[in-house]
What does this fold into?
Amino acid sequence: MPATFAGKGNAQTLVITLKDALLGLRVELRYSVFEDSDALVRSVAAVNEGTDRLYLEKILSASLDMDNEEFDLITLHGSWARERHITSRKVTEGKHIVSSLRGETSHQVQPFMALATNGTDQRQGTVYAMNLIYSGNFIAETELDYQESVRMSVGLHPDGFEWVLEPGGRFETPEAVLICSDGGLGQMTRTFHKLYQNHLIRSKYLHSKRPILINNWEATYFDFDDEKLVAIAKEAKKLGIEMLVMDDGWFGKRNDDSCALGDWQVNRDKIKGGLKSLVDRVNAEGLKFGIWFEPEMICPDSDLYREHPDWAVQVPGRVAGTMRNQYVLDLTRQEIVDYAYECVAQILRSANIAYVKWDMNRQLTDLGSFALDSAHMGEFSHRYVLGVYQMQERLLTEFPDLLLENCSGGGGRFDAGMLYYSPQIWTSDDMDPVERLLIQEGTALLYPLSTMGAHVCVCPNHSVGRVTPMETRAHVALAGTFGYELDITKLSGEEKEKAAAYNREYHRYNDLVREGTYYRIASYRENGMYDCWEVVDEEKREALVTYVQVRFEPVRKSRRLKLEGLEEKARYCLEETGETYTGEMLMQAGFLQEMIFGDYGSRLLHFVRI
Ligand code: DGJ
It folds into this structure.
């Protein structure tokens, strides 16, 4: 199971042991605190010390009782292409529940809940928040009862869950992160970010610039071959792009999404010289090579399914439903985990592959397995997630230099569990910069900017059809890992020059964006007009402010933006204009950002201490 960690002496864990003599059950409540973080991590273990079999039907990771303080409840909701929008409403009598029973975290909701006192904003107010380090079915619940008492809890979803605890058996819950901020939502966010950066994301790439990548998905969809990919690589190299990622469609007979998941042999009609030759050619152009997999899936129209129809998740004896023409592999079975792992590993062993995009394009339904008897069926969903974790653990052990990016039909598995394995996660299939403002604001409420997969998309955008300036698409993508998802060979000369300039900006600013402290200055979600965020380095020597003006407002000449996190007495120069300000001025009075004529304009503003 993914879990927080710390160096020796940097964390302490209090374990409270409870015993139920009648049942022979021991329960350990674990509370971990960290020297450098105001977060508390809570988990539970149940151990059967008796002689009878026990059935665990509900075991949450954390539960907190407190007085009601006129709380607002903040959660993250959405769907495909609009993941993690921030939602807020009053806590009223009764239960407020957010949950997933989709076998994964889901596009629809996050395992996160925050209670904020009345009037809380980015800078002030008390916030109590919980986030679960887990990638499967969960429940987060708040209940206001008749005595004005509030209970907030989070953990594995009890519906359909039943774990058989044999004598001597032990069950561990996922960890829940608990944060109390008395400095508003901003402080809550920064506590989550630092905790995940210092104590959860273990990738060796966490503190490095990730290669600027170009992914061929929206450039070609399934219609590509090795020549097309090499042509993209050649052009990409000229502009300063550093890695080519070959997306879906390189294996089996996969020319559309109707077949072949499970048949992980290179399609020689497309990749004519074989994978190694393609990778070598791309490397020879000076680019790293990355590859897409969807290892958890099996299409009914695949050689794998024809050989092993019982490997698909299904209720034995019933007809299972497909989604995107695919079933899910039964990863509760060790032999299937081993097989699926080997499929990925063999490909990685065969060529110089630097990066894997691990996709998952359908949620789990028709829950059943040929290997679990009815007494153990309640273990299915959790065992599935453990199968995924095991595969990713093995992958990183065998290929320690691999850069892994998780993905699920866009951002359906953006969660703290996955961050333990991959330092970055594909945030959403929707790369339209306006949609991304909402998606990235919600994602960054919990997760560091360095984890958000963000690319410059083709225009008009494929998800919403919106036409936006390339500059704005780039500025929004620079808030994440940065890359491109378009056919670079089709850009005009002017667009290519711009791309080269954005790549230079990435190299200039990524250390700051990746390692700096994040402040949300204004929210398009709240004001309907513009969005603004800021990143400041630890020594407060520089700040990068990104301003996106979604709508032009006639008559209004400028917007006042008040910054945060600067040194009051220090002087800062705004590089773009040469104007200087004290930190105090920028934070108390703000600076005036002039209206940009037309919709969807944006600016990057770099303040440097002088
Ligand atoms: C969903 C992902 O989010 C996309 O980026 C792409 O990889 C497709 N799957 C491929 O099927």
Remarks:
- The radius of gyration is 25 Å.
- The first strand starts at residue 11 and ends at 20.
- The chain has a mean pLDDT of 97.
- The chain has 13 helices and 34 strands.
